[in-house]
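Work Package 3 (structural annotation) set out to generate three-dimensional models for the target panel prioritized at the project kickoff. During this period the team completed the workflow that converts sequence records into discrete structure tokens, so that structures can be stored uniformly alongside our sequence database. As a representative example, we reproduce one entry of 286 residues exactly as it appears in the project archive.
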Amino acid sequence: MSEASTTEQVRQFYDQVGWQVTREGLYQNARYEDLRPVAQEYIHRCHLRVNRHLKPSGRYLLDAGSGPVQYPEYLTYSEHYHYRVCLDLSHVALEEARARLGDKGLYVVADVANLPFAPGVFEGVVSLHTFHHLPAGTQPRAYQEVHRVLAEGSHAVIVNGWTEAPLMRRLAWLVNLAERLGKRLRRKTQVIQPEVQAEQGTNPVKTAPTGTFVQKIDANWLERELASQMHLEIYPWRSINVRFMRALVHQKLAGKAFLRLLFWLEERFPRWFARNGQYPLVVIYK
């Protein structure tokens, strides 16, 4: 698939599917996140990790692949900036972002691998779950573009995903077992009990969603491609994926306590979890 056709496929998916609102008032793309009450605290704390690595204030913050800026924590990244420049392929996403940010936002339809900005104009850059929609051959250019538009003395934060996270690979057998047991229990009960329904909240997964192009990489690839061109560090953003959480993290099984322990471990051993967990937080320094 060519770069142009991949870009168009991603744009169509988010315009026509990903950023459409369901009857529950959620975006279709929320299927890729765990919004159950048991996970809320952990997800919230992971989202706020981005703030640690950004300059606290400035004139322009670039949100490269902004989407609709759909979570409250995302708004905190630009709280003390004059403007948040939302860049996305999706017109639908930018209209939704405008509804949240109003005049504090500036809205640009463009590709993260071809940023239409002069060098050094942003005191901060964030990009969340966007680079993995680029072919691996294009991802280095996107990192280079972010570095190019970043002002001297400033930082960019990019949340991406590893193709095959070692931690998730090692625990795949446990996820498969939990999913099989869950299916058996559902067949026996036939009817979802009220307490289970409450735990699922507005985020049930009945069918696999139709997705779009995704190509992720690993830490060795990232360092090989970019370490000689820019100063970057890799930290953990979140170590486990949504499939793991839905299969194994439940209120009745001390799920919230498990996630608190996991967060503590990620903080205590950031290098290991950054390289082995599912979602790294890549910081570019300039």
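DSSP finds twelve helices and seven strands in the chain.
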